[in-house]
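Example 3.2
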Amino acid sequence: MIEKALIELLKGLKKVITLSSNNIIYIKSIDQNGVDITGEQFDDGKDDYLQISFNTILQAWYEFVSVRTASSSDFVMTNEFSTFSMALISKLPFVEVIHLAEEPAIKLREFKTDQLPSENYGSFESFVNEVENGKYDPSILNEQLSGSLYHLKSRCRQDLRLIGLLNEKNETSQNHMSEYITSKNKKQYLRQLVLMQDYFQVALGSLSIMKRFSKVEKRTALIEIGMLIVRNSKGDNLMLESVAEKRTNNLLSWLENLQLVDQNWIPINEELQKVDSKLREYFQKISSEYLAAKSENFGGNAFASFIRHDVPKEISKLSFLDGEKYSVAGSAGKGNWATVPWISILNRAVTNSTQRGYYLVYLFSEDMKRLYLSFSQGVTETSKEDMLRIKKDIRGHITMDSSVKKDDNMFIGDSNKAKQYAESTAAYIGYNLDDLPSETELVQDLKMMVGYYEDYIEFKSNPLVDPIYNSSPGNEITHEKEKWLANNKELINHIHTYITAKGFYYTKEEVTNLFLSLKTKPFVILSGISGTGKTKIVQWFAESVGATEENGQFTLIPIRPDWNDGSDLLGYVDIMGDFKPGPFTTVIEKAEQNPDDPYFVLLDEMNLARVEHYFSDVLSVMESRKWEDGKMVTSTLLSAEMAKREIRLPVNLYVIGTVNMDETTHPFSKKVLDRANTIEFNRVELSNLAFLEEQVEVEQKLVQDHMFRSKYLHLKDLYLGNPDLVEKVTAELEDINKSLQLTNAHIGYRVRDEICFYLAYNEDSELMSFENAFDHCILQKILPRISGSDTRVERLLEGLYRLFTTKEYNDDEESNEISIRTARYPKSAAKVVEMLRRLRDDGFTSFWIS
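Structure, written as tokens:
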């Protein structure tokens, strides 16, 4: 039945675009024998065409499913038509396009049974109501029920996990559950959650192709699709027919009851956000009130806040805007009212700022009479040449509906900013604000433009189209690397499991902290007494993601005490005038050649020499990171005069230094501490003997660099989509700075910004609570700055203790332990107590244990 669906898909197409060259193949006609196709060069009324029989197309399909991932060379029997066959098959909703080395390929998407409903909709809905009313607690269901009833309810519980109302521990997801409970239309809210699940989208896409099939045929086809692309919960084997039948019946039950399909199982195209979304209402409010609001003070203005917060929040609710992928932000100006207010929709993989990259944006005309939904580019950090090139790309390669204009006739106003916005626009839909279309049409238009946005992102990701994505010789992107694309939480779980399997005991929180610190800034210092495994955690961390000494992605550089400049690390020009690269420069060259892979450098015992002497050039260049044409670049590290070519610091290079603080080492200056997260490893648990037991072997997973790469460089990058977080963190730091000013140890803008970035990455992936994450930031970015022997240091530490615990410090050990346990920032409070005791015992204190 899938074969019949493939032919049905073909009958509904007018053209396909080849995967390798993005050429158009026009489908001229279809009859009982097959399909006539013609290339773009023949699209002038001539009769030149090529006929492909249905049998050939089906033979290509069988060749594809026999290997599951196929490039052109896998189509042995149908190689002559592989270009067309791959383009056609890629249109199926359960097939995705990937790249193996530099060659496009198609691959069957894969799911697990847990991604399909475990129970029919009626049973699920009853259980949701029972949970809402407090009858059952999903986290302790086995204590409340037994036997067949427990099995039924546990399957319903799995479905709650499926759509995000429960987390992996069967605890209610506070955000989703509270929104569900308070929702005016609960089925509407469940529909939105369901549409965020990939397998439901696959089913709806498949049913759209099979509109003319009978219900029996549709059910059969969905069962076959399930048996083709769904594996058991462990991922070992494909789903059995009996399981596929039950899960498919459940799936159809959900689609029917949530009114995602009609009685004939044809997808309902009406936009699901129609009832609850308020785009039309909010746009009308802006158009009618903005000009009057501009006569008021900007600071603290409620209407400006409405544009910055309320409108983006409303747009973010739309089911097709995945919060993991997209950020929505609004602006009424910065310090003063903007002549052109806007609301942007940014794909995080492309850009996190309207100043660079390309994105979607609603632009209001200066007279508040017109609104444009635009496919635009950042005007601040994009050169005119790049802007014209990208505009031409979008207009030339992305086929769009006739309602979308691809011209330069958009008029926003006469100001320079309005003209820049218009010039940056590649495509747009214009609306008259006095006569806006319906809510349904507005949402449909946005959904359509998001589709074009993603089409262009996919187009740009083709290494044959955009050299940015090319793999260098010796660094072909392997199928395994493409295969494991994790989110941050899954990645951290893997790293922790891998390290544990090696026989080393580190908590998941310690691994999470190291990950967040590296993502915040690619320079981390691990301090502590000798023998706590600082070197090993870095080695195993890197190895877990495929970075080893063998492949050159992990390099250990022992620091020598006699290093007093950068030549031993970076290189030097010899007496013959030839440049001799140092070990760090050698890694830089490898990282430049393989931009998609993360590279880790471990500077072992980095304070045996003075860090400021041999590492100052790297630290300075690291601070020079900036956005240029949508990419992160640095200033020159080594000039062309010295190294024969200009060498910069690559963004896929991560530096971790290990330090011991004793009489053989040098202390750190504030210059170094400001530029790193300093993670302390002094915890020793000699009684932990779990490593002696047999460990389960955990394999490395090849991970691409984007998982570690920073997406924020400047606070304005973050503030655009997270103003509340920035303001909250800043308020906390202002209180801490009041104490730090006693000894001029107060922090500056760099530390504030990096703490904000750390907390934003943490919040994005829901890794730790705000307080726990902020506790790490205080411990790593603030307390290492404190040292001294006078009463001002004592008053400073006592003030911090009071701030962290809300209690006064005293010398009673038991009282302090109680205060620490109940403190808002317990790790930092415990460190302050340690430093106070050292001050009173030795007459001097610092962060470091020596």
